[in-house]
Amino acid sequence: MGLLLRTCLPGAVVAALIAVSPTPTPWLPTPAVPLPACPNELTPFATPTPSPKGSAGAAVSPTPAPPAPALPMPASGVGGPRLAEPGRQVSVAAGAPEPPAIQATAWLVADLDTGAVLASCNAHVPLAPASTLKVLTAVALMHAGPATAHYTARPQDAAVDGTRAGLVPGSVYTVDNLWHGLLMSSGNDCATALAELVGGAPAAAELMRRAAQQLGAADTVITNTSGLDAPGQVSSAYDLAEFGRAALRDPQITGFMRTRSYAFPEAGTGLHGENGRRTFQIQNHNRLLFNYPGATGVKNGYTTAAGGSYIGSATRGGKSYLVTMLRADTNTWRATAELLDWAFAAGPSAQPVGTLDVGPAPSPSPDAGSATPSAAAPGASPSDPFPSSGGSATPHAGGPQAMAGQVVGRPAAPPAAPAAGTSSRTRWLWLGAALLGGGVLGSAVALLIAATRPGRRPRGRYAPRG
Hints:
The structure is a single chain. This protein has 13 helices and eleven strands. The longest helix has 19 residues, at 2-20. The chain is an alpha+beta fold. A hairpin with a 2-residue loop joins β9 (307-316) and β10 (319-328). The chain has one domain: DD-peptidase/beta-lactamase superfamily (Beta-lactamase, 3-Layer(aba) Sandwich). The strands form three sheets. Strands 1, 2, 3, 8, 9, 10 and 11 form a seven-stranded antiparallel beta sheet that branches. The protein has a two-stranded antiparallel ribbon with strand order 4-5.
């Protein structure tokens, strides 16, 4: 018995630790200082420091926070005069429920089909958008560059601040890879790469400005493709609704946004070849897709300075609604779900307080291709809004390897996704852990777990921001 315990117990312990450790999921850190519901003044986001202790161990009262700065003035009055007024705007029928109290400085609820704004708060106040700006990046750039391109990552891509999908300098990626990394895991490295593919950051920002203008978004000022905090870069709850509605009308963008998991290529100088290329799994950070029945998109965002931001949409019973919010001090997907619940319950009887004046979607360049995600067809289908993609791309003629930031042909055939969404590296890690434990029983258990457990993101490639 003692020999059996010495043989099996270490490996079994290792396997048990693997089994109980949580599977990594997209998460949104939130500031500690709460905001009042639909405030007219900004409350600074700050992480409180521990209170100093007196001689008897009693807590000393912290220094009072400085007064909150006043909200910026509304940047426009597009969509109706009530949307430019401060505070909450809603008109519900007698006896109908009011919108829930949401801890966000600005938010908006709209009917996706008609464009009617059912309720809003500070809809045109310009605030930092964080990664929700990536929705405009997709609307503006999805058709601006050749879909047959592939891209060699640069050191500045991998060094970008915030969340990264995992680009490695010198490694080559398809446009399909980059769009999945941008819209699923909010990769700022993919944002800089996609900007380079259309001529660099200034050219990309200009394309985004033109797209915003076409959509009637008058509150947005663009500096970068990632949404990372930058001087002067702002958007509004109203403009985010414009971007979200335009994105949901594009089946290629929705294909990327609704993909739940994707096999992202690891480091390597070449693209998918005959011998394949190892991958690691990335997951969609939009938790609404996993937790809200009928969810159809769109994108979350967060930075320390901007707070939480969100664009969320859902369809039920033939009705579709869109929710946006900025500077939220809350679990943003849950707050979005609460507003969507209100829309489905009270939306048909609510009197519109404005309208989304969404213009035509930006026209693709006549000589540019369109990036088509491997899951675009099922992703665009209402019957299957949550595809999982193995990382395949539309086949194109091959070409020579690109220099950093240059555009050349995409290879002809990608490999299949790793079984059960688990990369070969992950399986060997679990096997090694079990063997080090020295237990035959532990090895068997660990191998069973490894065969069914989703792959983990490599260390150092994720920062909870952006």
